[in-house]
Amino acid sequence: MLLAIPLAAGCGDDGGGGGTTSSTGGTGGEGGGATSSSASTTSGSTGGGGSMDCGPDVDAPEEVLAGDTDPEAGMFTLDEALVELPEGPGPLRAIIETDKGALTCELFPDEAPNAVANFVGLARGRRPWLDPATGSWVKRRFYDGLTFHRVIPEFMAQGGDRLANGEGWPGYEFADEISALKHRAGTLAYANAGADTNGSQFYVTEVVTDWLDGAYTIFGQCAPVEVVTEMTHVETDEDDKPLVALGLNKVTITRCAP
C-alpha cells in the first residue's frame, strides 16, 4: 500500500510512480475556513521546543507483545498516549528534529483526538505497532531514526515510513477526522491511500495546499516553515526521494512552556 499525496493541477508530475502513494491531502490551515484557536501560538514557537523546565518525558519500557493482531484492536485513546507525560503550562506539542533543523508543532487534540493520540502514542512508544523487521507487535518509539522519504518543493515533506518507500504502515489503520481546518504553510497531517487509511505516515506542508482540504486529517501546525523549505529543496530521484537520506531523527512530545 503506497501512500500518495497529490499535487495540484498544473504542478506537474508528483513523482509518486503511480499506484496509491501515501497522499497528503487533508484539512489544513490557510485559504479560507477555520483554523484551530491554538494555531496562532505555534507560529511564535521556536525550533527545539523552548523551555523544558517542566521536566523530561518518561521513557516507556520497550516491549515485544504476544499475538499477531493489534493489541489495541484499533482503540487507542489520548489518555493512553499521554500516560506519564509531565504536566506543563504550554500546549501539547511535538518537536520534530530533522537533518535541516527542528520543527515545533502544536497538536490539535480538540479537532483530531484520535490522530493526535496515534501520533503521540507512536512517538512516545506507548502505542503498539507491527515491526516489519520481525513480524512482532512491539511498544517502542516509532519515529526516531527514520527519514523523510518523499519531498517536493513548493509542496510538502513526507515521513513516518519504516520502509522508506511509501508502503510502510504500523500494522493498523484508523478513520479520518476531517475538521474545518485548512492546509496552510506548516500544516501537519496524515498521508493516506484513501478514506480511513491513516497509519504512521505524515506530511508537513511548505505552502498553502488547499486542494488537499477535506480529504486528509490535519492534526497540528508546525514552525518554522523555513525548515520545511530546506527539506523540500534537496536533490531527489524520479520518485521524489532524497538522494541523500534526510533524517527524521527524533520526535519529542512536551507540554512544557514554549
TrEMBL record:
Domain PPIase cyclophilin-type: 101-253
One GO process term, biological-process aspect: protein folding
Compositionally biased tracts (Gly residues): 12-34
Composition-biased stretches (Low complexity): 35-44
Top EC group: isomerase
Pfam families: Pro_isomerase
UniProt keyword annotation of Transferase present: no
Reaction(s) catalysed by this chain's protein: [protein]-peptidylproline (omega=180) = [protein]-peptidylproline (omega=0)
Region Disordered: start-end pairs: 10-70
Keyword match Isomerase: yes
Gene Ontology terms, MF aspect: peptidyl-prolyl cis-trans isomerase activity
Keyword terms: Isomerase, Rotamase
Annotated family: Belongs to the cyclophilin-type PPIase family.
Function of the protein: PPIases accelerate the folding of proteins. It catalyzes the cis-trans isomerization of proline imidic peptide bonds in oligopeptides.
Name assigned to this protein: Peptidyl-prolyl cis-trans isomerase
